[in-house]
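Field reference: sequence -> structure
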Amino acid sequence: MKKLLSVAAVVAMFSWMAWAADAPKELNDAAQVLQNMTSSNKIPSHVLDQARCIAVIPKLTKAGFVVGGKHGDGAVSCRTATGWSAPAFITMTGGSLGLQAGAEHQSIILLMNARGEQELKNGHWNLGAGASAAGPTGGAGASENTGWKAPVLSYSSSKGVFAGADVGGSKIGADEDLIHTLYGQNATFQMVLNGQENAPTSAHQFLSALGQAAGTQSAAAH
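Structure field:
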């Protein structure tokens, strides 16, 4: 029995170490994707400036050509009175994307308005009809008159091809295991996004990328 308990303890320790190692890599990958997808101004600056929360899925993996599934892990941060919150961790699953059929991997950025922020903080969100829309694209001269009616605007990049993406039918959930590993067992998804947890050193690159892309000031609710 003692031997079994020792083996279980070792397995638990290595599992914890694996989760702990996942966090910095996920954040660095998310920072790189954010920099790549926003540095060219293909996501209009006024849309980024209005976003209340920004989620990045560095690698959304598809199974199947037209009909299949997808899964990806990522990081999300929301604006607070003092700047961007420490990042929380999410998973994204659902049916296959209609955009870029045949692509095995895609990077996704989700921009959320005030309604999207409220839904996100529930921790479990099914992006049903009307919940998401492909985000407008264009350079610095893109029109600022584009209405933002859906809670989420989404963007995708795969093999150098960039476009607004339709992620309707996807499900977003909080990765509680990774959140507890990084912030402690008492931390919750909502606490992190509300700015109640301090950002770890491993999050600095991601938060810096957010600040460069969308500024550090709080966006007006809309």
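Note: The chain has one domain: 16-139+148-214.
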